[in-house]
Amino acid sequence: MKTRITELLGIEHPIMQGGMHYVGFAEMAAAVSNAGGLGTITGLTLRTPENLAREIARCREMTSKPFAVNLTFLPALTPPDYPGFVKAIIDGGVKIVETAGNNPAKWMPALKEAGIKVVHKCTSVRHALKAEAIGCDAVSVDGFECGGHPGEDDIPNMILLPRAAEELKIPFLASGGMADGRSLVAALAMGADGMNMGTRFIATKEAPVHENVKQALVNASELDTTLIMRPLRNTERVLKNAAVDRILEKEKTLGANLKFEDIIHEVGGVYPKIMTDGTMDAGAWSCGMVAGLIHDIPTCQELIDRIMAEANGLIRARLAGMVAA
Ligand SMILES: Cc1cc2nc3c(=O)[nH]c(=O)nc-3n(C[C@H](O)[C@H](O)[C@H](O)COP(=O)(O)O)c2cc1C
Questions:
Q1: Which of 60, 136, 178, 283 counts the highest number of beta carbons within 10 A?
Q2: How is the chain split into domains, by residue range?
Q3: 50-68 pLDDT per residue, tens
Q4: What homologous superfamily is domain 4-208 in, according to CATH?
Q5: pTM (2 decimals)?
Q6: Within 6 Å (CB) of ligand 1, which residues are found?
């Protein structure tokens, strides 16, 4: 399939794997890229520019295809070494960066000078337009369904994607709730040029996470996620568990007085315990409603091949047949 996204990013299929904390290691990124999509290493998970440089080199040993690095800009008292991360990306010869969390304007000159394509992930049309204005090459539009941070507008993709198509000139990926060929065809119909998946890629053979995490996704339904940290305007969609119950109870009790410190032990530093050790109640972890559409644990190649076959079948048989009739 050829779209503006496959052309821009030099990939075979219009499918990207979004940055995911403690999931987006070289194994994940290389598996997606080898299957013809765009895999992404999650920069901040590596903690230091030196580790990121090593991870980029490791990924290059596993794939000759393009892959991206995610740079998530978080509000932090002691900010991560962003200049160091950007340098590691440029020195490592990575040609695609997924930015998220905040406006990447500050980093655009360095990234563009190095010939890097920037895909900015955002949750609203106004932020997508801002990204276009500052020179991003594409955006990933994350709807309310998405795992992770859906923003505060709560606009689902059925509305957000066609609205993005009405306003944007640059290509965009549909993100949030994407799982299969049906998602891809729907996203293309609504004006997107491809799709970005997070949660679905965790339930694959190559995802470098504990089996408990993959099983939790297979077992979960679309009713099993919820939103936390809304009172802090840092809303996150997570899988329900005991830690999340405690957070929600605290949010209810403290109301507008809730501070990040009140819940930090349930959300800070918990990813290694969940993703690596498989201790599923160790804290809150991002998960999309799309868990309801995850029923198996294929390889990335099987998943992407299946998506493309289903998408082609839907377009050629189901949709074309309806028009003919
Ligand atoms: C476990 C997990 C961790 C994530 N971590 C990050 C992150 O560190 N940075 C980021 O930009 N997005 C992160 N995301 C968001 C994904 O890149 C992607 O935008 C989102 O998962 C899309 O929605 P979906 O899960 O419905 O496919 C994360 C998502 C999940 C499920």
A1: 178
A2: 4-208, 211-289
A3: 999 999 999 999 999 999 9
A4: Aldolase class I (3.20.20.70)
A5: 0.98
A6: 18-21, 23, 42, 70, 72, 100, 121, 142, 145-148, 175-178, 196-200, 285-288, 290
